[in-house]
Protein: Cation diffusion facilitator CzcD-associated flavoprotein CzcO
Amino acid sequence: MSATRKLPTELDAVIVGAGFSGLYQLYKLRNLGMRVKVVEAGSDIGGTWYWNRYPGARCDVESMHYSYSFDPELEQEWEWTEKYPSQPEILSYIHHVADRHDLRKDVVLDTKVTAAHYDEDSALWTVRTESGDEVGARYCIMAVGCLSVPKKPEVPGLERFRGDWYHTCDWPESGVDFTGKRVAVIGTGSSGIQAIPIIAKQATELTVFQRTPNFSLPTFNGPIDQGMVADIKSRYREIREESRQSGFGVAIEPPTRSALEVDPDERHHNYEERWRRGNLTGVLQAYTDLLADEEANETAAEFVRGKIREIVDDPETAEKLCPKTYAFGTKRPCLDTGYYETFNSDHVQLVDLKETPLVEITGSGVRTSDREYEVDSLVLATGFDAMTGALLNIDVRGRGGQTLREKWQDGPALYLGLNPAGFPNLFTITGPGSPSVLSNMIVSIEQHVEWITDLVDHMRSSELRTVEATETAEKEWTDHVREVGDMTLYPKTDSWYMGANVPGKPRLLMAYLGGVGPYWQKCQEVAANDYEGFALSA
Ligand code: FAD
Ligand code: NAP
Structure:
């Protein structure tokens, strides 16, 4: 046993990760009277909202909806200050929840899980940490996050760079002041698009290296509307239920018409009105076929391009910022505050890496095929090894010593996105094959945690020892996820949803597009039918 052992040797359940998922799972399993610990690599709780402290980091689901629903008193008491909550505000919310429910005492920080091995005789998982501690547990719950493993750019030379460099998702706690600095940002996904306007305000020169332009819409963020807060708080239960039954985890009026059956002027007015709402679902959910039909999608895409051309003064820069190679919405669209406007400042320049590809990071900056850009600081906003990265970083071994990495060499396979066949009593929260990143994540997290908790409770009360997906159920579900995805435009786009941002990663749509509501209904039916598709044994 290690001298500084932080974990007991035996537990009922080990949860890996102390973000929204792991903390809620801890709360629920502890309420069943189980011995549970959360193991977290970071030095504090919060997950995404602990790590992503870059300037401008903020949620783009409105605060009243990006919050736990399980504690009605909490949702009445807690006061959000802005329409879209900032990273510090979400982090203080998570801390408040942890304090309120005394969760910290069961969280082991600064401890990375390196392995989880299943023993068929004892039907126990042995979870191993980087410091060599081992703990045995009946259940192993992976709450490791879908966007928690940073991806660096695949260009040589970072180790030679003499200035300071930062990844958006591993930002110094003390913050970074770019005043007086020449700064380069590589990457124009949601993180880059949020950080760039703020970095531009500090830096003397800012060079943005863009490989693929993104569609971004304005947040029109500001102090939260107290009338709206009072209204939502007066009927929170009903709204939460509507969110759970919705397509993307936020209750909205679903579209009823095709974009192509509407007169172009009317369509433009509709897009204009929805643009002003300052949210993701407005324009994207204006018509039924925007995510399924290229011609319909093009009407929305061209509307957004029109906005970019209106905002950006220099026509050449505006064209570079206009996405033209993929359908609107099939790469995660962004919400921003002053992103396109930033390119109207003389000290900001855009480098199109499709014209002049990135060659290397040098001692003093960034070299493209065209020239070297000398900078003092480098910001990598290059994204994540999404959805499978954190799971495959752990040496997970199931029945017969099979590794998850072997099982998933052609892409992730799980039943309902919850459990891979051959890995009894192991669950993933918002795993591949569930709505996950294609939803308001808090809604999907709560659904998974509650479903897993009910199953564990059922196992205990029925004196059952193992539960695992059957190969057949897993295959049928995985095929279904693929078929539903293929009915949309998503698979045509190289995005992180498809694993296409990580060289060598299998290319397939990892999230389930059947909708949060229908998915939840399916999970409930499975449970009601004696956990159909799972093998349960004593
Ligand atoms: P995480 O918050 O990622 O937590 C996982 C934790 O597991 C991490 O703390 C990590 O350190 C830990 N961990 C991983 N591997 C190990 C290991 N081997 N050992 C120990 N610990 C480990 N979602 C939305 O719905 N709306 C948004 O607007 C939105 N904005 C986002 C903005 C950013 C910048 C990012 C990165 C993500 C955003 N998301 C958003 C997605 C966000 O990740 C989820 O909403 C949610 O916070 C995920 O919670 P989680 O607990 O599942 O995972
Ligand atoms: P991302 O969307 O994957 O963006 C990464 C960016 O880096 C892309 O522009 C990508 O270009 C570029 N890039 C990656 N590797 C590169 C290379 N080798 N050379 C040049 N450019 C490279 O990552 P992210 O911005 O961190 O966002 C990830 C997800 O987190 C989001 O989609 C969202 O779900 C969530 N998020 C949400 C918010 C929010 O507003 N709520 C904020 C941040 C993050 P390509 O497109 O060409 O690959």
About this structure: The CA atoms of residues 28 and 325 lie 45 Å apart.
